[in-house]
Amino acid sequence: MIRRLWRHRAGRAGLALAAAVVLLALLGPLAWPYQPDLPDYARQLTPPDARHWLGTDAAGRDQLARVLAGTGTSLTAVAAVFALTALIGLVVGAVAGFLGGPVDAVVGRTIDVLLGLPPQITALAIVGALGVGTGNLVVALVLAGWAYPARIARAAVLGSHRRLDVLAARLAGIGRWRILTGHVLPGAVTTVLVAATTTAGETVLTLAGLSFLGLGAQPPAAELGQLLADSQSSLVSSPWLLIGPTAVIAAMVAAAMLTADALADITDPAPAPARAGRRARAARTGGDGALVATGLSVRYPDGTHALRGVDLTLAAGTALAVVGESGCGKTTLARTVLRLLPAGTAIGGAVHVAGRDLLHLDRRALRRSRGYLVGYVAQDPYAACDPLRSLGHHVAAPWRVHRRRPPAGVVRDRIAGLGIDPGRLRDRPHRWSGGMVQRATIAAATAHRPAVTVADEPTSALDAGLAEEVLATLRGASSALLLVTHDLRLAAAHSDRVAVMYAGRIIETGRSGDVLDAPRHPYTAALLAATPRPDGTPVRGLPGSPPSLRDLPAGCPFAPRCDRRVADCASREPTLSDGVACWNPR
Amino acid sequence: MGRRLLSPARAGLRRLGQAAATLLAGSVLVWALLALAPGDPARRVLEAGNVTNPTAAQVEAKRAELGLTGGPARRYGRWLAGAARGDLGVSWVTGRPVRDELGRRLPATLRLAAAAVGLGAVAALALALLAAAAPGRWPDTAARVLSTGALVVPGFVVGLVVLHVVVLRGADLRVIADGRWATVLLPAATLALAPAAAWSRVLRADLLRAAGSGHVDVARARGASTWWALTRHQLPHALVQFLTVVGTGVAALLGGAPVVETVYTWPGIGAYAVAGIASRDLPVVQGYALLAIAAYVAVSLSVDLAAAALDPRVAERRR
User: Where does the ABC transmembrane type-1 domain lie (chain B) (predicted)?
Assistant: First the structure.
């Protein structure tokens, strides 16, 4: 765990800071010549100089020596609170979660209730009862703080009796407590330590605050918060007295925060946010047709080469279906045309929509063109709608986002034209059926009659009967349609042309009927065989799985799964010629 | 979807029950402080009343007067009944009812807390929107540096610097902290610093998370600007969570109030409670803790109910 923390940037900084503070507390008092509690009334409140690096306080004591001693006191108290909350939390939470039943019910409720109380107030009240002093402060903070790690420990252990290793141990005849200490607790220890770390920074600050109020260490003992309180009376003339204690407190809090952040990162590895990067330039080519893509290639920041030279033309007034398995690059193609790729993605080639160079539009022009050049219908109609906004809002949005008012009656007409009762415009999307929501998003996407409508799996969240209907609506509403789907049969029925994609390339393209009736690429044939047919021909699944787009081997990427392999397939990748990219087409 | 949805009314009732349970547990804890405290309370009260060497009979009588006779359950019941009526006992130091002492100072603390919540929420909102509009760019970095500084340095140190170094040194500027609205700005800003930093971080993360959802893509594909998407589609989703975070942040405000009130000599209940701890005046501490816990429970309850009202899915998602 420590090693993984060290490899994490924030984790390394946190560990280094923590180590620095510990070394300061341990070695500092040995190395520094002055005593923390030796007054020297000849040198009261001297500013920092070569002898007294942090100056002296009102009694002429060396401030650095006091800070070093105070760091020791504070660090010990924080460490004690950390260790005790983690230990008590671990034991109480884990035992309750492991035992289950009434014990767990009572402990679980107690933990929940305690977590509903404000921790600093609880700590303050307990100190109020116990009396002042560092020891009482630690007790108070532990009593106020054990519930959080206990909840984490309980959650980690709950349900462990169903875990395979625990079952195996039970079957092997190992006793309950041995299982708890040998199998269940070790797993919970890490999560509890992470939980305790997230509150450690808070502990440092609370401790400093309460000591500042005079509730912690009593003079002449030094403690960081109390040093700050001591300096209060002479601050107007000697503000430098704040520097030392504040710096150490800040370092301790920062160490805890950085370590906690890094631990959260390590234990929950979400993908790192993409970095902004530059885009590859490419030669411009004009062209006719609603959408013309030439030599389009896309590489994501993680190295995935999702598109590897795609050429396609979508003529105005027609529909082109892009078909393939998931991971073949079809969604990337759609998002490239929409210019919705993550920052840092390298794009090569060109895309022209209605004669305009889409990839080189600047931000302003791109924003203005959106909804006019390219419209977008997403896969899941519910996800495509802001759940907090009414359906009427979504239909009117195409005008509103461009700071325009929808023409009078247009929203109503469009809704009615889609067969939706205009009286329900104020309903939120979750009250509507999937088909209705999707038809409304189609209305929104095509509001400005964009040159191209891009639909990414627009029917995969709907049932089959509805899919036909929605696709017909989509077709009717679009001037030119780029339909991305995995369903070759459905696609062919609703498009003029089909482009089949595999491993980031188009491997077969042609008129929909031709491709459906007589597929020439073995992959297209396999894809067709894998889709259910109304006449009941048995379905044959596709063998193997698509290749990784990070490092493709030489040769045809489909060769390992192909039943028509020839010698060339392993060495050279075929390019599209006469509508098919294969060395041995049918 | 197979899961029984609670009606909003039932979900609200359930939350109300939780709040009541927490409040009750808090009252047990506050009452138990008396058992934690060393020494005999009856003797302490007598000594405070200048009876230096009380006789056993005097102590017994005082004990009965303070309601310290009988088993724990009876004593707790008596204490709770009193507290529910607003009777928090008498101060061991002054002999005056704790209720009056706290009541006199409560308005000042309420002003401070309200100003701090307002200032903090506005600052957090501004900082988070700036950061989320250009993630990774300089406004984001600046916001992060600022919030880290505010989180790492104790609030009272900032208060000390402001008070002693900037204001008192700055010639004839005087700080009057008399508990009125006119003087609330500096203490409230000091108190709000750390919570605002924490809130802005949560809000920034939620705004960016909302940016990744499908409907924001769709809005952007439609031509929505960054700012439009941010304010119309991301903020409304992050706002409910923000409200909840601000609600729980009230705990941090309540916890910080005693320190900030002491630094600025703000005449509120926090500074009074600190003085009570120093003089071992337990009823004052108990009264303060009970009041703070009740306030916290009430705030988190209303925040949760408000969140449910703002976003019906929150209520439906629960359990």
Answer: 106-307
Number of folded domains in chain A?
Answer: 1
Average pLDDT over residues A131-155: 88
- B64 Cβ contact list (under 8 Å, min separation 6): none
Give a yes or no: residue A220 inside a domain.
yes
Task: Please name the member of B223, B280, B313 whose beta carbon is closest to the beta carbon of A371.
Answer: B223
Q: Residue A112's domain spans which residues?
A: 38-62+77-247
Are the Cβ atoms of B222 and A398 closer than 8 angstroms?
yes
CA A58 – CA A495 distance, rounded (Å): 87
Interface predicted TM-score (ipTM): 0.84
Query: What domains lie within chain B, and their CATH numbers?
Result: 2-84 (no CATH), 104-318 (1.10.3720.10)
Name the maximum alpha-carbon separation found in chain A: 105
Q: Is residue A164 part of a domain?
A: yes
Chain B residues in contact with A128 by the CB 8 A cut-off are 33, 273, 276-277, 282, 285-286, 289
Which contiguous run of DSSP H or E holds residue A224? helix A224-231
User: Is A400 part of a structural domain of the chain?
Assistant: no
- Whether B233 sits inside 8 A of A386 (CB atoms) is yes
Query: How far does chain B reach from its first CA to its final CA, in angstroms?
Result: 13
Contact A384 B37 (CB under 8 A): no
Tens digits of per-residue pLDDT, B47-64? 766 677 777 788 888 777
| Per-residue tokens: A185 | 């607790």
Q: What is the pTM of this model?
A: 0.70
Write out the two tokens for B257.
Answer: 């109030």
Are residues A134 and B306 in contact, defined by beta-carbon separation less than 8 angstroms?
A: no
Q: How many other CB atoms are found less than 10 A from the CB of residue A221? A: 15
The mean pLDDT of A436-449, rounded to a whole number, is 84
CB contact under 8 A, A132 and B236: no
CB B305 within 8 A of CB B12: yes
Q: Phi first, then psi: give them for residue A580, nearest 5 degrees.
A: -145, 145
Task: Say if A445 falls within a structural domain.
Answer: no
A324 Cβ neighbours under 8 A, 6+ residues apart: A330, A486, A500, A501, A502, A527
Contact criterion met (CB < 8 Å) for A246 and B153: yes
Query: Angle at CA A147, nearest 5°, toward A141 and A148?
Result: 100
Compute the average pLDDT of residues A517-531: 86
3-state SS of A561-573 is: HCCCCCHHHHCCC
Cis peptide before A553 (omega within 30 of 0): no
- Tell whether A132 is within 8 A of chain B (Cβ): yes
- Contact at CB, A376 and B222, closer than 8 angstroms: yes
Q: Does A331 touch chain B (CB under 8 A)?
A: no
The answer to whether residue A266 neighbours chain B at the CB level (below 8 Å) is no
Q: Is A276 touching B (CB cutoff 8 A)?
A: yes
Q: What average pLDDT does the segment A223-230 reach?
A: 85
A386 contacts chain B (CB < 8 A): yes
Burial profile A246-277: b = 16 or more Cβ within 10 angstroms, e = fewer: bebbbbbbbbbbbbbbbbebbeeeeeeeeeee
Of B25, B33, B293, the CB nearest to A129: B33
What per-residue confidence (pLDDT) applies to B5? 52
**Exposed/middle/buried for B114, CB within 10 Å: 0-12, 13-18, 19+?**
middle
Contact between chains at B222 and A214 (C-beta distance less than 8 A)? no
Tell me the average pLDDT of chain B: 80
Residue with tokens 């924080």: A78
Asked if the Cβ–Cβ distance from A228 to B160 is below 8 Å, we say yes
Selecting from B36, B194, B274 the residue whose C-beta is nearest the C-beta of A130 gives B36
- Is the CB of B223 less than 8 angstroms away from the CB of A209? no
CATH number, position A215? 1.10.3720
Look at the block and give the residue holding tokens 């993360």.
Answer: B205
